[in-house]
Amino acid sequence: MTDIIEAYLKKVLHQQEQVEIRRSEIAQLFDCVPSQINYVINTRFTIQKGYLVESKRGGGGYIRIIKVQVLDEMDMLNSMIDIIGDSINETDARSVVHKLYEDEIISKREAKLMLVAMDKSLYTGERLIDNRLRSNLLRTMLANLKYEEPNKRKADNS
Amino acid sequence: MTDIIEAYLKKVLHQQEQVEIRRSEIAQLFDCVPSQINYVINTRFTIQKGYLVESKRGGGGYIRIIKVQVLDEMDMLNSMIDIIGDSINETDARSVVHKLYEDEIISKREAKLMLVAMDKSLYTGERLIDNRLRSNLLRTMLANLKYEEPNKRKADNS
DNA sequence: TATTAATAGTCAAAAATAGTCAAACAACTA
DNA sequence: TAGTTGTTTGACTATTTTTGACTATTAATA
């Protein structure tokens, strides 16, 4: 089942760079429970595989899958994410950002923004907690630098 | 429905810098209850998104939506910093970042980095505390965008 | 000035979505 | 066969939108 739904979505994505579905409709179409769709998405449309997923609940809700282009810096970023681990202090975090800047993976402005976010004074004051929060933030930022969304179309809403 | 009404109003605002409507008329036009219009306005035309709303009740009442105009980048950043105040929730913070991106004050990558840092899941879980931390971080980031450092000289400290 | 009509605003309940998580099940593997 | 891994299911949760009863404000009229 998972494979069938995956194939269906990929077929659409082969022609368009994004799909938007209504979870319940797809579930009905394939005669499965709605949460099966989440399973398919969580296992087959991950960022590692080059997909970005957005969704909205409530009336007019949807799930949107976007094919993204994975960048060359991916390996570098992945290994940095590994190195960071689940906790990092401000000094080390700054070094990571500096290195990214030196390696021209991020611009100066981007580096400044990231450094601001690494600043101790912004956090709670509990060292252990802060180091975890910081690691979370830094790793998520790096993860977001790994890919690039397709070009925006002219008649973009949002 | 909300999206449709939003699109309608934005279309008008694309040509004029303000719209004035009669709530009941628009509700009738789109066949929805009048309070739906308030919902659209409250969720889609906030100050964080760059709109001002004025209204009057009673005979000849109206709702007026005005697109705020700012002169330049510095102005925009300053007014956003003002709007943020000392506390901001995730939704509003996202609106601010989005607006800066739309107005080409920040790049898409910068926007992504900033959005990551606004994410609720990153914080402590205490709403009031989180909103303060988020405001601090966002305002500091914006403040850092206001100026550009001079070119690095050889004997650069920092 | 007091009353009524004509507006718009608020708020909370209901409806319409999607997400999470763990238990049951299935398919493989040592 | 026992253990491991991947899949399916459904009960429960979270979020967003829609709706309508009630309130507030302003203008028109008596």
UniProtKB/TrEMBL annotation, chains A, B:
Residue limits of the CtsR C-terminal dimerization domain?
Answer: 73-142
State the UniProt keywords alphabetically: DNA-binding, Repressor, Transcription, Transcription regulation
Q: Could you tell me which Pfam families the record lists for this protein? A: CtsR (PF05848), CtsR_C (PF17727)
GO molecular function list: DNA binding
**One GO biological process from the UniProt record?**
regulation of DNA-templated transcription
InterPro entries hit by this protein: CtsR, CtsR_C, CtsR_C_sf, CtsR_N, CtsR_N_sf
Q: Give start and end of each CtsR N-terminal HTH domain.
A: 1-69
Q: Where is the signal peptide?
A: none
The UniProt entry's sequence similarity note says:
Belongs to the CtsR family.
Protein's name in the database = Transcriptional regulator CtsR
